[in-house]
Amino acid sequence: MKFQVAVDGRSMEIGSAQLGGVTQVEPGVYSVLLGGASYEVRVGGNFEHLTVYACGRTFAVEVRDPRDTSSAAHASIGSGRQNIRAPMHGRVIRVLVNVGDAVEVGQGLMVVEAMKMQNEMKALQPGRVTEVRARAGETVRAGDTLLVIE
């Protein structure tokens, strides 16, 4: 089976052969073997809207199940409400946008420090910031919604 996936706004197909090097280590944590190297990947969110943390970077990921034939599912990649979530426990270092700001794909939204690394949360799709739920200096938990884009 193949899935339609959008990573930071770029669409691609992922098949079961490409998932052969992925092993779950603990809930939300995976070991990924790619090109002879091993990577730790942390995943938060739900199946449709994931936040993936790997190699010091954070990626917004959307997945569409090919068995869902509804027109809404086909249009969902890169459209609609986007909840930006914390990939792991940490502290908000900077908020780069305000409510009402227009954002573009890949634009930095917020910087969260976790495990002594700074992670910039980025917009998966263009839109307008409708909510900012975290401020600089606040502590956040994995999966907390930091801001919303519509």
Describe the protein's topology.
Blueprint: E1 2-7, E2 10-15, E3 22-26, E4 29-34, E5 37-45, E6 49-54, E7 57-64, H1 71-76, E8 82-85, E9 90-95, E10 102-103, E11 108-114, E12 117-122, E13 127-132, E14 139-140, E15 145-149
Antiparallel strand pairs: 1-2, 1-7, 3-4, 4-5, 5-6, 6-7, 8-15, 9-11, 9-14, 10-13, 11-12, 13-15
Instruction: Report the top-level CATH class.
Output: Mainly Beta
Shape by Cα distribution: globular
Helical residue percent? under 10%
CATH hierarchy: architecture: Beta Barrel
Task: Describe the structure using short key phrases.
150 residues, mainly beta, OB fold (Dihydrolipoamide Acetyltransferase, E2P), seven-stranded antiparallel β-sheet, four-stranded antiparallel β-sheet, 1 helix, 15 strands
Write a structural description:
With 150 residues, this protein is mainly beta. The protein has a single domain (2-149), classed as RNA polymerase II/Efflux pump adaptor protein, barrel-sandwich hybrid domain (OB fold (Dihydrolipoamide Acetyltransferase, E2P)). The chain is built from 1 helix and 15 strands; from the N terminus they run βββββββαββββββββ. It is globular, with a radius of gyration of 15 Å.
